[in-house]
Structures
1.
Amino acid sequence: MSQTENTNINELVQTATDCALSALSGILPDKNIPEGFDEKLRAELSCKLTEQQERSKTLRKLQQTELEILKEIDRICRKHNLRYYIVGGTLIGAVRHGGFIPWDDDIDISMPREDFDKLCKISAEELSDKYFLQTYKKEKDCYFYYAKVRMEGTYFGEDKFEHMSIHKGIFIDIFPLDYIPQNTAMQKIIFRGFSCLGGFICSKAKTTEFLYKNMSLPFIVTFRLIQCILPKKVFLGMRTILGKLSNAFSKKNLYASLSGFHGYPMEIAPKEWWGDGCDIEFEDVTVRAPSQYHTLLTHMFGDYMQLPPEEERVNHSVEPDKIIFEGCTREDYKPKIKRKRSHRYYGCDYDVYPIEDKE
C-alpha cells in the first residue's frame, strides 16, 4: 500500500476515533472513558478500513481483467460478424454508470444460438492463447448450458467448483439465445423442463445450489430414485434435446435465455428487441447492446435506473484471497475438496473433506 493511502487511512481513523470519543464522553457518567479504549478503537477502525480498501482494489482489478476478456470476444465477433449483446447487470451498468455497476464483479453477454455455436467452433483458432472457452463438451466435470471464456493463469475460487476438475480462471459468461414457441403453456413446459433437468445435473455435479425447497415428499422420493439410476450424461443429453426442440417448434420470433438466472417469463423477449444490436460505451471500450435495450431492461427489471437497497447490492462473494491474477497453472485447478453427498438441501450443508483424505 502506498504512503499516500496509509496517510488517508490514518486521517480517517483519527477523525472517526475523535468523533466516537466525543460522542461517548457526552453520554458516559463523569465522561469516564475506559483506559486504552481509544487505542483499541483506533486499531479496529484501521483494520476495517484497510480491509475494505483492499477489497475495493481487488474488485477493480477483477473488473479490469474481465474487461480484457470482453475486448477479446468483441474483437472476434466483429471480425466474423457475430451478434452478441451485453446483458443483465452489465447492460444496466453501461446505461446507468457508463461501465461496471460499482459493486458488480462479473460480465454477462448473450448470443443468438447460431452465433453462439459458431463462436464455439472457431474459438480454438481465434481465441488468443491467454483465454479458454469452457463448455460441457470440452470438460467432463463442466455441466452448465452456457459457456464461459476464462483467462489462463488466473484463479477465481467459487465454492461450487472447488471439488471439480475444471478450469477455474477469471471469466465472463456467454448465454445462448434459443427460439421458443409463442404458446405460453409450451413456454412453461420448456422452462420447467430445463429447471428440473438442471436440478438433476446439479445434484450429480454436487454443486452448492439448494434442492428440495417447498417440494412434496413424493417428488423428493421420485427425484432421488431417478437421480440415482441415470448418469449425468443422460440429463445433459436430454437438456440439449429440449433446447433443440424449443428451436424447432417455434416461429423464430421469440428469443429465450433458457439458462438465464431470472427464469420464466423474464428471460423471454421478442427477437426485434434484440435486433442486430447497437454500440454502447462500457468503461473504455465500445461494445454491443440489444437494439431496444431500454424496453428489454424494463421488461426484466422494471425501473432499472433506480439504485437497489444496500442489502441487495451483492456479487459472487468470493474472498479476495481466492482470486489470483497471474501465475496459476492447470495444477492449481485440480479439486481441493471432496463432497460426500450427491446434492445439497435446505437445513443441511455438505460434508466436505480435504482431497488427500480417504473415505
Note: The mean pLDDT is 88.
2.
Amino acid sequence: MAASGTGLGAPDPNLGVAPENLVIIGSGPAGYTAAIYAARANLNPLLITGFQVGGIAGGQLMTTTHVENFPGFPDGILGPELMDRMKSQAVRWGTRLLEADAEGLDLSQRPYRIRVEGQTIISQSLILATGASANRLGIADEDRFWSRGISACAICDGATPQFRNAQLAVVGGGDSACEEAVYLTKYGSKVHLIVRGARLRASAAMADRVRANPAITVHWHRQVIGVAPEPGDGNWLGAITLGDPTGGSSETLPVRGLFYAIGHTPNTQLMRDQLALDPRGYLITRAGHPETSLEGVYAAGDVADAEWRQGITAAASGCQAALAAERWLSAQGLALTVPRAEVEPKSLGEPVQTPVSDGDNYDPVALWQKGGYALRKLYHDSNRPLLVVYSSPSCGPCHVLKPQLKRVLKELEGRAQGVEIDIETDQDIAEQAGVTGTPTVQLFLNKELKQQWKGVKQRSEFLQAIDALLNPSS
C-alpha cells in the first residue's frame, strides 16, 4: 500500500474504460460478506483481496484455530476454513476477485481511482475493509530473532520442529493471547503467558481454559524487556527477560519461542489525508452506520472498529456497507446492474483436498502432489524445477499461498512441479529441511536447493526464480 495520500502519480490511460459499480478493498468477514450482498444485488462487484500488505487475504481469522462463536457452527470451525467458505460463497454469486494489494487510492474526484498491479481501476463507490495488522513490541533485537523464535502468529508457526517440547511464551491478556497459549500446549513442554496487568481481558470461556491448563503459567504484572540468543547458537531465541511495568524486579525465562498477541493497528495507510480518521488511525463513521466522510465510500470491519473486533460484527458491517452502497448507487442513478447468466448459481460443493501420495496414486508428471513419498520420488527422479511448500493445517497464510503456487505451475505448463509437506504429519522432513515457520517454500533443481522463501510472496517472485533455472542464458 502507499504510505499516504493518493500514490497514483500521472493520469492513467485506463481511465477511459467504464467505471465499476463497486470495488471492495480487503477481504476477511467484512469484505467477503459485502461481496456476497453486492453480488446478489447484481452489482457485479470487484473485490481486491489484499495479498501481503496489512496482513493476508482472509483477514485475522486466517490466523485463528477454532472459531467457536460464529453462528451456524455448533462444533466450531477452523478460521481458514470459515474464510474459504465465505470466499467461495462470494464467488458463487458472481464476485470477481483480484488477488493483489491495492497500491494507491485517489479519492479527490469521482469516479474514485484505485491503483493495483500497475493498472488504474475506477469505481463509482468503494467499500474499505482493509482490517488491521498485528502489533510488535519494538524491543532490542526483535528483528534479529523474527522468524527465529519470535512470531506474531502462534497458529501459523507453533507446529514447527524448533518449538516442539520446548518452553514457549505468549505476550498478551486478551482472547487471542489465551487461545494461542492453549494452542501451543499441543507442542511445547510449558507455556508462559506474560500479562502486563493484574487480570485477563479475555472472555470468561477463554480465561477458564487458561486457568484449567496445567501446562500454562501466567506471569502477572510482567512485560518483555529483552531477548537473548540460545546458548551456543546466536541465531535462535534462547531466553526472554521480564520486567515489572512499575519498575520492580526482573527475571529471565529460558524459552525457544516468543509469540505476540498484543493488539492491532488499523490498515488505513491508503486513506490518510483523504478520509477522516480518529487519533488511533481508525476510519470515522457514525455509530451503527458504514458511511465515511466521503459520499459513496463506506467502511466495514476492523478498519473502523476499535471496540468490538469480532468476526460476526465484521460480517454484519460488511452487510451494512453493501446495502448502503447499493442504495446510494441507485439513488444517484449510477448502478449498472449485470444480470447473472444463471438465476440459480451452481453449487460449488465441498473443497477438494489434495490426497497424500503413495505407491498407488503417485504420478511422476503431476503438477501438484502431497507428502513425503512424492517429495522423495521427485527429488531423486525429476529433472524439472521442484517447488516444495511446508505448511500446517491451521496456517492461514498457507491457504493464501498454495493456490498462487498452483497457478505458477499451471502457467509454466508442466515445466516445473510442486509438492506440499504437512509439517505436523512429516515432522522429520520439516526438521531436516530447517523449516522455522510456515509457509516456507524451497526451490530445488537436480537435488540442489536453489532458493528459499519464508511467508507469503508475490507469484511473480516464484515465476522469475523458476524461469531463471529453465533459461539460465537469458
Note: Residues 311-331 form the longest helix (21 residues).
3.
Amino acid sequence: MPILGYSAALEQFHPNELIRWCQEAEQAGFGGVMAADHFHPWIPQQGQSSLVWSWMGALGSSTKQLTFGPGVTCASYRYHPAIIAQGAATLAAMYPRRFWLGIGTGEALNEHVVGGEWPDAPVRLERMVESIEVIKQLFTGKKTRYAGKHIRMESARLYTRPEVPCPIFVAASGPKTAETAGRLCDGLITPAAPAEKLKTLIESFEKGAREAGKEPSTMPKLLQLHVSWADTYDEAAQQAMKEWPNGGIKAPKQDIRSPEDFAAFGQLVRPEDFKGRVFISTDLEEHRRHLQSFYDLGFDEVHVHNVGLNQTEFIRAYGEVVIPALHGKDAQA
C-alpha cells in the first residue's frame, strides 16, 4: 500500500492541536507527516505560525512510526544551512529512519523578515544548491568550511549525528529545479498539478538522477495535495473560501511579502478559482480516485491537507474509507 501522509498546517492550527491530530492520523493509517515551515501565516485570520523545528521534536516523541519532515525549509535566508544541518541531524539521531529533510528556494512571506535583498528565482536556486552542499558536507561528520558565491561557513563540525544521514528531498515546481533535485539529493517534493506537468517534473527529476549515477526508481517522490471535504459541497466550498483563500490565488506567490497582501489578493478569489488548486468534494470515492491518480503517475507518498477546521472528522473518514482502498502503481485495483 502506498503512503498517505497528513499535511500539518502550522500556519493554520495551534501546534498542540496538530500533535493530537497527527496521533489520530497515525491511528487511522496515515503513514507520514509533512509539516509546514512558516514564519507568517498566509493570511492574518489563519492566526498561527509556530516554529516547525520545535514542533517536529514533539511530533517524534508523540507518535510511534510516522515518518516526517518539513515541507519545506528554505536553508539560505532566515536560517543558515549549518543550523538546518544541526537540527536535521539531531532529529535523525533521535528518530532513526523516520525524519527526512525537505529543502526549497523559499518565499518572501517568510524569508524577508531578516531583511536584505529578495532576489530573482535563478539566484534563489543558486543559494539553495549552495545550502545543500553545506548541509551534505556537515552530514559527513568531518570538520569543514564553505565559501560559495552566496553562502559562507567557517570551520564547523557536527558532533551529534545519526548512524545514517537523513535523506534530503527538494521541492520543485519547475523542470530545472526538479533536475537539480535528482542530481543533488535523495527525493522530490512537489505540489499537486495537472498530470502532464507532473510527468514533466518526474522526467526531469529522473534525468538529473541518472546523470548523477543514481537509480531514480529507488528515490522517493512526494506530493502535497490540498483538499476541502465536508458534508455538503457548499460547506466544502465555503470553508476553502474562508480558511484557505490563498489556495485560489492564481498569481505567483513567492514574491508576496505579507499576510495582509495575501488577504487582499484573497478578496478576489471565487470558488471556481480553486479548480486544480484545491480539490473540493464531499464524495470520498472521488477523493480516493483523485489520490490514486497521483500514485499511478509514480508518486510514493501523497500528503493531504484538508483546509477546513473539521480535522478529526476528515482523518476518521479517510482512515475508514480512503486509505484501505489505495494501491501502488503496479498493484491491481
Note: The CA atoms of residues 175 and 201 lie 5 Å apart.
